[in-house]
Design goal:
The structure holds two protein chains of two kinds. Chain A is an all-beta fold. Chain A has strands at about 1-5, 10-14. By secondary structure, chain B is mainly beta. Classes of the chains: A mainly beta, B mainly beta.
Amino acid sequence: TTTQGRLDSFFKIS
Amino acid sequence: MFEARLVQSSILKKVLEAIKELLNEATFDCSDSGIQLQAMDNSHVSLVSLNLRSDGFDKYRCDRNLSMGINLASMSKIMKCAGNDDVLTMKAQDNADLVTFMFESQNQEKVMDYEMKLMNLDQEHLGIPETDYSCVIKLPSQEFARIVRDLSQFGESVVISCTKEGIKFSAGGDIGNANIKLAQTSNVDKDEDAVTIEMQEPVSLTFACRYLNSFAKATPLSPQVQLSMSADVPLVVEYKIGDIGHIRYYLAPKIED
């Protein structure tokens, strides 16, 4: 099974 | 004073179709260099990054940087009022709470003005790191849209695998499994029909079909689409917008538990 990743963990919010 | 004139208003109509399924509202950042938009969908799984360069407009003036918070459903209603061949001019005063869309017929006998209220939106800018992607694939945009649509029937996810031999799109579910392989084209009459692969390392990643289908709404903007992939980082799906700019979608991969 897979879970959907979120962009927050890849990109930095500024 | 901000003023941007586009002889082909159809470009902005298509841009709106390409983003309104993912985003309810977004900030259009207008500066001397052009119009930029960067926004994530509500679930923070995908990001839309739009860039329209000032030199791609038929007339462009932006005296002061302006951030226009726009409800995209409202803007879509207005853009539907424009004919494909109408000339579009967007106008706003400095610090305005309104933007005006003016549509003129080619013969200038019909002129339409639509004023839209702007919104105050919280700006959340994402720093996207420069990445050297392991695989960069270019393929006809209609082909990509078709593949994603077809595979969506089989399951919620599609696995995109890229090797030197080609790209494979796979999906599986209750009714069975589906695999679509595309090889790099050797010779095609038209560049836009080509499939090209630049690969440093093979990559295989899993993505949600729902988002890929939303990205494919940008198909009318460009005959080709570019997919950039590296292990464990978001996919980039890019459509060029004529000589004026591009729209890029970023999509977080699904992760094995």
